[in-house]
Design brief:
Pfam families: NAD_binding_8. Strands 1-2 form a two-stranded parallel ribbon. Strands 3-4 form a two-stranded antiparallel sheet. 23% of the residues lie in helices and 19% in strands. A hairpin with a 2-residue loop joins strand 3 and strand 4. The chain has a single domain, classed as FAD/NAD(P)-binding domain (3-Layer(bba) Sandwich), CATH 3.50.50.
Length: 94
């Protein structure tokens, strides 16, 4: 029987940890206080409008892709990232 592990929180960190532990053969149970997973990677919908609850800019996309790759899954099957160029424009009033 595999070792049992509890992961508290189903945000990006908890989900990544659970995936990697399960991939190593552990019996993982995730406990989440909210009614959906994702933590700060969620979306609020009000009157047909959508508001991102977390990051809208991903500066290091490989970090998000790596847990999928580590478990033999193609991240492109689950999400799409789009490069924005220029990344940002800073204007300082003189």
């Amino acid at each position: 029987m595999p070792n049992k592990i509890a992961v508290v929180g189903a945000g990006i960190g908890g989900l990544t940890t659970a995936i990697q532990l399960q991939n190593k053969g552990y019996d993982v149970t995730i406990y989440e206080k909210n009614d959906k997973v994702g933590g700060k990677m969620n979306q609020l919908k009000i009157d047909g409008f959508k508001f991102d609850m977390g990051p809208t800019i991903v500066m290091m996309p490989d970090i998000y892709r790596q847990p999928f790759v580590d478990t033999g899954v193609n991240p492109d099957d689950y999400f799409t990232m789009q490069r924005v160029d220029p990344f940002m424009k800073v204007q300082i009033d003189d």
